[in-house]
Design brief:
heterodimer; A: 285 residues; mainly alpha; MetI-like fold; two-stranded antiparallel sheet; 12 helices; B: 264 residues; transmembrane (chain B); transport (chain B); membrane (chain B); MetI-like_sf (chain B)
């Protein structure tokens, strides 16, 4: 990609500047209003009190701001919430690991196929993924129903893996496809066996793909509520279900907002880790 | 170059994963033609579940809503997303340097967070009755990023000098856009539209939070059916939806082969 300083950025006349604002302002305003403002509102709501009939209590009580760390204290004071967060992390980790184990051979095969065949094999990965999310979950109700496996943690993980697998396969494939086959040939000429070549060359080189795939699976799984609800039992609920409950059933918005903020913090931390770890290291190739 | 082909075990493992991807959906399709109320064993061929489906007014109304929302939301998202894509690629200066954050975060974060924060915003600040408008706004919000990514990818490969040439020849910014930029990015714009159309018609999680009680979309309707009882009618609607998505993909691939590849 040829990066040139965009023309006119420096010597922009009035017309150029006007164009720039006319083009960038509408989407910016829209997202400020409907993405950033709601996000900030949620942050603020996490410090407020629940209203008597759901929703939020008045912000001003007797002329004083009615803000507190109450819901955060509540969260950290009750082991059950930490347990559900922990369970969500475990489910996300298990899902990511299984996705990785399933995706790797497939991605490797596609990357090592002839160029003409690759597109077809990739399309075959994307196609089932194009059907509606709920249909893919529903399919597992039918598959697992006869085996008495429905409403178990196993069913939840099966559904999670099924729904998120392409997110692991595609980045892995994109990475593996770029590997230079000459490296493997050289290793073979030097007497390295298949396993050694994989462990010393392919695997280390594919780490960026593994990291981005893992982030793409782990993060959405962490916030998922529909799969535990449809495939899991009452004891399999995750953070997503807890959040949904606060907003739609209990109508305890401050607690729901607090849980959402904690989930956001977890997601941001994970994304930062993945970006940092996935950065291709220099000198390893 | 010697390319020894892939070993047998790799083929076997990969085939097993493909089977894992396709078998559950195949079972859904097969049972949609099964002459039994239970999705348990094959009894005989029938198309009556499709008949039941076509007579289900609630389902048809939900489908109509979904279609309307998808068309309107993706048209607006395409316009706004194209603008954002152009702005991100052309002017990474000043305040606009923050634009990618604004555009891409909604794409990357768990859907539930966008859903509940919009719910909070609509109810608390705008005091909006949840329904068509709130669903439309939510769908536009999460689609803008996808369109912008595709359009930016399309623009990134282009030589800036074409736009300079147009300007030097005296074209106004609008003429440059209309006669030069737009024709060049059109495949990306169309791919972006189709992508946001699919996202919108498929969306469950965000819609679930912002729909309120009055308006149902197809995924919401399917969800409430699955929650109550599993009937072959769900198989039939699933099969039809899969057929629809497949045709859309085929259409997209035909219209914009390279635009689609710029999607990730």
């Amino acid at each position: 990609m040829t990066e040139r300083p965009s023309a006119g950025a420096g010597r922009s006349g009035g017309g150029e500047r006007l164009t720039r604002w006319l083009v960038s302002l509408p989407p910016t305003l829209f997202l400020l209003l409907f993405f950033l403002a709601p996000a900030l509102l949620m942050l603020a709501a996490s410090f407020r009190q629940p209203g008597d009939f759901g929703g939020l209590a008045p912000l001003l009580v007797d002329g004083r701001l009615n803000l507190s760390l109450e819901t955060y204290r509540f969260f950290f004071g009750d082991w059950i919430y930490a347990e559900i967060f922990l369970r969500s992390f475990l489910v996300a980790a298990a899902t990511t690991l299984i996705c990785l184990l399933l995706a790797y051979p497939l991605a490797l095969l596609i990357a090592r196929s002839e160029r003409r065949r690759r597109d077809v094999l990739v399309l075959l990965v994307i196609l089932p993924f194009a059907s509606n999310f709920l249909i893919r979950v529903y399919a597992w109700i039918i598959v697992l129903g006869p085996f008495d496996l429905l409403y178990t943690p196993l069913a939840v993980i099966a559904g999670m893996v099924y729904v998120h697998l392409p997110f692991m396969i595609l980045p892995l494939y994109t990475n593996l496809e770029k590997h230079d086959p000459a490296l493997l040939e050289a290793a073979q000429d030097l007497g390295a066996g298949g396993w050694t070549r994989f462990r010393r060359i392919t695997l280390p080189l594919s780490m960026p793909g593994i990291w981005s795939g893992s982030a793409l699976v782990f993060i959405p799984v962490l916030g998922m509520f529909a799969i535990p609800e449809l495939l899991g039992g009452t004891r399999d609920i995750l953070v997503g279900n807890l959040i949904k409950e606060q907003f739609l059933d209990n109508r305890d918005w401050p607690l729901g907002s607090t849980l959402s903020m904690l989930l956001t913090a977890a997601v941001l931390a994970l994304a930062a880790i993945a970006v940092r770890a996935g950065r291709p290291r220099r000198g390893t190739a | 170059m010697r390319r020894a082909g892939s070993p047998l075990w790799l083929w076997l493992a990969a085939s097993a994963v493909y089977a894992f991807l396709y078998l559950p959906l195949a079972i859904v399709v097969i049972f949609s033609f099964n002459d039994s109320l239970l999705n348990a064993e094959w009894v005989g061929f029938t198309t009556r579940w499709y008949g039941v489906l076509l007579a289900d007014e609630e389902m048809l109304r939900a489908a109509g809503n979904s279609l309307f929302i998808a068309v309107v939301a993706s048209l607006i998202a395409t316009v706004l997303g194209t603008m954002a894509g152009i702005a991100m690629q052309r002017w990474p200066v000043g305040l606009l340097r923050a634009l990618p954050f604004l555009v891409l975060t909604p794409v990357a974060m768990p859907e539930i967070l966008l859903g509940v924060s919009l719910l909070l915003f609509f109810r608390q600040v705008l005091d909006l009755t949840l329904g068509l408008v709130s669903i439309l706004i939510a769908h536009i919000t999460f689609s803008i990023g996808f369109v912008a990514i595709i359009v930016r990818a399309r623009l990134a490969g282009m030589d800036e000098s074409i736009f300079e040439a147009a300007r030097d020849l005296g074209a106004s910014p609008w003429q440059t856009f209309r006669r030069v930029t737009l024709p060049l990015i059109l495949p990306g714009v169309i791919a972006g539209f189709l992508m946001s159309f699919t996202l919108s018609i498929d969306d469950f999680v965000i819609t679930f939070f912002v729909a309120g009680v009055g308006v149902t979309t197809l995924p919401l309707q399917i969800y409430s059916m699955i929650k109550v009882a599993v009937t072959p009618e769900v198989n039939a609607v699933s099969t039809l939806l899969m057929a629809l998505t497949l045709s859309l993909i085929a259409l997209a691939a035909r219209l914009a082969p390279d635009g689609i590849q710029g999607r990730r």
